């Protein structure tokens, strides 16, 4: 039997895939375009296209567990119905465990993100585990790297935010471990980094790692929205960028800080400065 990683080349999905492969397990990566790293089998699966939901099983492949990763954006709520339909297909084909990537601010009783998927896994009493990570350190590569490369500046509207930032490497490892566990008793956990980090402190860490002065500059919420929308790799609409800014206001008021030190949390190993050292080349000055 194999493990199915959905979400194609998603950050945490690739880490989970490598973790499972290193453990001697067969891994299949599902993607909308079939583009997966060398050494992995790929199958078609597009959350936007319900006609592809049976595709991972069309070759007779059987899966012990599935890692469910949804795309980020306002459309995720609508995509939930297709993810739920896929879960039904997977159960029909003998899948016994689901690990869901959610988020620390996603209330399973709410409407945003993959909340409805989380609800469904519980309602059906399926063997599952929901990872609820706080801010990814790796998001710096998407949201702040351009400003750091071009202006040596991190621009945010959250001067007071203290965040237990978590690396993708740790999240993916937790996903792989959850897929391999003999038994899951606690079915959801917040996923935190090992320290609280402010954006001022992140700038200080990057200064040490990069060998040049990086500063944190507080700007207006409108400027943050403008920055997000201007990054092609994000592909965010203005509406979604505005939503992220609203969520950031809660973080600035302490929503993520309050999670630090709570019981029944998963805590990663990698500090922000260790993460920055791994990715220092991504912040090299633009030429």
UniProtKB/TrEMBL annotation:
InterPro entries reported for this sequence: Ergot_Alk_Oxidoreductase (IPR051604), NAD(P)-bd_dom_sf (IPR036291), NmrA-like (IPR008030)
Pfam families in the record: NmrA
Every NmrA-like domain range: 84-249
SUPFAM superfamilies for this protein: NAD(P)-binding Rossmann-fold domains
Highest taxon listed in the record's lineage: Eukaryota
PANTHER family: PRESTALK A DIFFERENTIATION PROTEIN A, PTHR43162
The name this protein goes by in its record: NmrA-like domain-containing protein
Organism per entry: Ephemerocybe angulata
Lineage: Eukaryota, Fungi, Dikarya, Basidiomycota, Agaricomycotina
